[in-house]
Amino acid sequence: MHDDRVLRRLFERDGGMPVEIPTGAPLTDAEMKAGLLREVDLFAGLSLDQLREISRTLPMTTCHTGGLVTSPDDDGERLFIVKRGRVRLYRLTPDGKQLTLDILDKGRVVGRMSWLGQELNEVYAEAIEDAVVCSFTPDELRRLIDRFPGIGLNMIRYLSDRLAASEREREVMAFRSVEQRLATRLVELAERFGQPDAGGVAIDARLTQQELADMIGTSRETLATTVSSLRERGMLEMQNQRVLIRDMDRLRELAGS
Amino acid sequence: MTIPIRAMRSRWQLPGLPTSPTPVPSVDRDTMLAADHIATERLRLGLLQMMENAGRELADLTRLALGGSLAGRSVLVLAGTGNNAGGGLVAARRLAGWGADVCVAFARPILWLRPGPCAQVEPLLAAGVRTAVAGHDRSHPELAGEVVRADAVIDALIGYSLRGAPDAAYQPLIGLAALGDGPVISLDIPSGIDASTGERGGVAVSADITLALALPKHGTAAGEGRRFAGTRYLADIGIPASVFAELGVRDVPRFPDGALVRLD
């Protein structure tokens, strides 16, 4: 990959820490819920120079196969980024056996940091291949955000994704459908921004379907299906980022059901 | 590769379970997907609700396959990551609650599970079920020993959505499933069999009993799936017959004599 070659040249010239841009599939809902972010969630969009500077700041340690990167006995809050090798995340079951939660490879983050919602309590992280990890404390992360505000924005994006994942989870648990959540959100929006209009209440919040989907933690495709179903039942119209609620009473009823 | 087909299939005519008085229609993958979609999205039947129904019936069927009592009996559940696994995990919890010694072998780490089955893990541990992720917490040979010692094996690895061959992480567990002497019970469809065609894209579980959910899948009555499914039973999981009628499936059974019926 082009970026890798550039980075390798930087590394060779400077003799500093290797800088790697992690890649990987999106996190699953369960991973989101457990608070397993990726390095890319933190550092996306930063320039190569900025990444290089950060990689110099954060201390790197090597953890040999079988060694614990972190355990519930560790004091204080600290996040670890896996730079190389693989780390197994596990918890203990009531009968004292290990149960593997995930295998973390390059770019994955583990540890505890309460203000990021990283609260994987009672979780052990063990290197299953010699691993290189870098770590930071909440204070160090705050200093990074001061220096590179983009990291703060990345955190907001990550936390809102987590919120959406947690909503999806709640839907499974509480049996609330996408339709009900959309209705609830539209009623809220109508109460705040709604204007009486011929044929109903108009919400001129300039929301795209994607934004609306993000707000209720669903995909754009599912949202589109749900909107057409509500439209067919005469409850709303949606055009040019403008929502017209035609039947507020029925929408309220749906939201409250 | 030769897949051994287990003998003594006829043993699994479980006493006390009625046969359906009328022929039962079967469905393909897309029809079942659509039915699940209507049930969860339009009728708001919760996924966990249907999962609990499926798991409870699977546990009941397993008890019957073990002679009616679970005292002193052991069951091994093979679990994947999807909703099929969710039903298996419910069954594991119920069987443990009823007195069986239950072990669940997961094909993948826990956080790979979809939200529904993932939500089953905490109650499972609380019920005293032993758990291990294959290849990480316990090796495949160790789990093979567990299969041999088990009085019954439940296959909840892969459900009706499979196309082609099972993923590499599933193959060793599929290979282990039939090592013991006890019944192998597949949930919905033997893992590795295509629900629409009955084709086997790679390895597949050779089941003694397959418990279909809602309606049997085409794949248990066609192609290689017919042999791999063993004796077929059907469980009512609460999807109204009108859902299938809307999809053009007629003569859906009504279960007047109980939520489990024999199909073969």
Account of the 3D structure:
The complex is a heterodimer of chains A (257) and B (264). Chain A has 257 residues and is of the alpha+beta class. Chain A has 2 domains: 2-168, Jelly Rolls, CATH 2.60.120.10; 176-256, Winged helix-like DNA-binding domain superfamily/Winged helix DNA-binding domain (Arc Repressor Mutant, subunit A). Chain A is built from 10 helices and 13 strands. Chain A has helices at 2-14, 29-34, 39-43, 48-57, 138-147, 149-174, 178-193, 209-215, 220-232, 248-256, and strands spanning 60-63, 68-70, 78-84, 87-92, 98-104, 109-113, 118-119, 123-127, 131-136, 194-197, 200-203, 236-239, 242-245. In chain A, helix 5 crosses helix 6 (149-174), helix 7 packs across helix 10 and helix 8 packs across helix 9. The N and C termini of chain A lie far apart (51 Å). With 264 residues, chain B is of the alpha/beta class. Chain B has a single domain (26-67, 75-250), classed as 3-Layer(aba) Sandwich (Rossmann fold). Chain B contains 9 helices and 8 strands. Chain B has helices spanning 29-42, 47-65, 83-97, 115-118, 121-126, 140-149, 171-176, 225-229, 241-246; strands at residues 74-79, 101-106, 130-133, 152-156, 184-187, 209-213, 231-235, 260-262. In chain B, strands 3-2-1-4-5-6-7-8 form an 8-stranded mixed sheet, with helices on both faces. Chain B is globular and about 45 Å long. The model of chain B has no long low-confidence stretch (mean pLDDT 93). Classes of the chains: A alpha+beta (257), B alpha/beta (264). The A-B interface holds A 28-31, 34, 36, 88-90, 93-95, 97-103, 168-169, 172-173, 175, 177-180 and B 40-41, 44-49, 109-116, 118-119, 125-126, 128, 130-133, 136-137.
